[in-house]
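Interim report, section 4.2 (structural modelling).
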Amino acid sequence: MTTHKELSEYELSLLNDPEKRASLKTKDRMAIPPQEMPHQNSVERRNNLEEVAIGYTLEQARIEAMRCLQCAKPKCIDDCPVNINIPAFIKQIAENNLPAAAEILKETTLLPAICGRVCPQESQCQKNCTVGKALKDVDKSVAIGRLERFVADWERTSNLAAVPKIKPETGKKVAVIGSGPAGLVVAADVRREGHSVTIFEAFHKLGGVMRYGIPEFRLPNDIVDKEIDMLKQMGVEFRTNFIIGKTRKLQDLIEKDGYEAVFVGTGAGLPVFMNIEGENLVGVFSANEYLTRANLMRAFDKTKADTPIYESETVAVLGGGNVAMDAARMAVRLGAKKVYVIYRRTEKEMPARAEEVQHAKEEGIEFRFLENAKRIIGDENKRVKAIECLRYELGEPDESGRRRPVKIENSEFILDVDTVIVAIGNNSNPLIKQSTPQIETTRWGNIVVDNNQKTSMDRVFAGGDIVLGAATVILAMGEGKKAAESINKLLAS
Amino acid sequence: MNKILFKQKLSDNVYLMRIHNPLICNERKAGQFIILQLDDDFGERIPLTIADADEKEGSITLIFQVVGKTTDELSRLNEGDKIANLAGPLGSPTHIEKFGRVVCVGGGIGVAPLHPIVQAMKKAGNEVITILGARNKDLIILEKEMAAYSDKQIICTDDGSYGLKALVTQPLKELCEENPKPDLVIAIGPPIMMKFCSETTRPYKVKTLVSLNTIMVDGTGMCGGCRVNIGNEVKFVCVDGPEFDGHLVDFDNMIARLNSYKKIEQKSHKCNLDKYLEQKK
Ligand SMILES: Cc1cc2nc3c(=O)[nH]c(=O)nc-3n(C[C@H](O)[C@H](O)[C@H](O)COP(=O)(O)OP(=O)(O)OC[C@H]3O[C@@H](n4cnc5c(N)ncnc54)[C@H](O)[C@@H]3O)c2cc1C
Ligand code: FES
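Predicted structure of the assembly:
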């Protein structure tokens, strides 16, 4: 099932001979071929939800780690949103000292098993890696994400992850709203200081987008469960089916329930639609709905789940981000015969992780670049039967530096599809804003915070997608860390 | 939390349950609903309107008709059992004020969500006229409870087994022709009934509110599965509704979307239901 190559004799000698390792020169390290990630075969995986990337073996991880030049001024650390000491943990892998590697990761990141899987490494830590630069190919940078994942997986599967020390109870209470990565990090860091922490989650399951959005073939539920178990062992309390703003008002948490600080990490859960004709036909879904049905509600398991999922033959996914990739690849796994991804720009501008685009292609998904939907056409039963698209070309760069797509007049054409999944973005979750008018938000509904993640309300902090707009797990984590520091400082005084 | 305190069969396949949940009980207002799920892993999330609440007991009342697997399983639970997941109160509350003459039309199980609205409208000083409709006498629910808050009550059945042999739109039309005509109509029931009530009042320019029961997943504005066309806008029923101006609702689209899973649902529900019934034996 796996597809990685046998190790060469030279590689084996590096593993076994510390002296040989110590004598490795830059030139030797650069000559070590990048280790390929073992994968589940692309035919089999079209029918299951198991993880696609299987993970390095110990030998592979150590060889890959030897490619790291241990730069004097490592760019990778600066490019990591939480500044993991990357060369240091990688060095420990090369030396087969995994506990030390795990310790180094833990200094800065709570969720390495998750970040190693879902971070856009090619635009962060691996972007300016000296090895990748020298080899003129970012794909040949040291595989930092895979190594991070390797260490975290090793620690988890060998059950070595110890419950962090908790300082003596302070008797102070902190409420965390939302159990996505931002909320989990706040909970861990605040709990460690001895404060009691309650996480309120609207859903019946914990983890936020890591549970309901990102599919198991990229991020198995077990991994999210383990992180949450750890928080439970630390004494963090969880209240599911509890919607702040509805079940209880935010102000009541402070004024009536005795919470001394509140963190809002409610995410970007408001799907954006295109506002085109036919978007409310039967068979048009937001990626959020499609993925929530398949992941959270387990509709993938058609024999067991009560939640139905649309039976599709031909699917058009609109968008070019991770959400679009996940929806397209989920549609394949749910039995669609043909899946198109329709994106207005070119592959180069796609915000999705490069690896996911690669995997999607291997799974037979057809990418249609420089095209965009104009309207969706229904049959007599108001069900989708086709989509009309326009061709685009790239014009001048916009503020984000990406070249702006410009439509080509009279270039309309029609694709026959029975399902359309809209994955063009998410806005901030409106529940807190609606029920807490005193909290300051931007025009787009994002909560406004200062440098310490503090909102306009006394004792209320916010972070993650609700502040940043749809962003990433690692940025949400980073904001959570900062917010936790501010909360700990507030409660110390 | 979520313990069933009381259960009663109201008609052939309609049940009433009082469920202990002081949090929802305290926050809920007329017009709001909850999302319920019976199995953590494989259950579906279904919206049910809160029909009443008892602050002393800390309970909410749900009234539901058995229409699928989840409502069937729910109907088999008994007093003392617990409901795995209950989240709410969701949706925007009904706007209550003194309008004057308010006509409340409830079709079938739609009488349940209408109940708290009728109560609140009456308490706000309105003249309340209720019209209850159902296929036959057995399916008329909450007749006494509604009468307690109505200045006038009209009952219609399709087969004439009770009250008028008429559709609810007939007395509604007559009321629109009266002087003074109603200041507000609230119609809750099957989509087709709400559509025709809205069509009935449209020529008289009587403001008409309907409460939409679309398919929902999260109920918090995250998935967009509940979206409907309202005039020229797209709205999410779970956060923008569930009540909307009936004269602006695109009912045909809503009905089509409600049937999104008809084919599959019948298939899978049948086999799931069969399996389930076999286990019970
Ligand atoms: C399909 C998909 C794929 C993605 N892929 C990637 C990827 O590969 N890499 C990457 O880095 N990022 C990815 N992202 C983005 C990433 O998941 C988010 O940036 C991140 O999860 C944001 O974290 P958060 O903690 O701010 O919020 P979320 O993860 O959104 O969590 C918010 C939580 O708050 C809960 N909540 C909301 N309102 C309330 C309330 N009023 N009361 C109680 N609870 C509430 C929600 O139910 C939710 O559980 C992806 C996103 C999606 C949707
Ligand atoms: S039910 Fe998901 S947005 Fe309304």
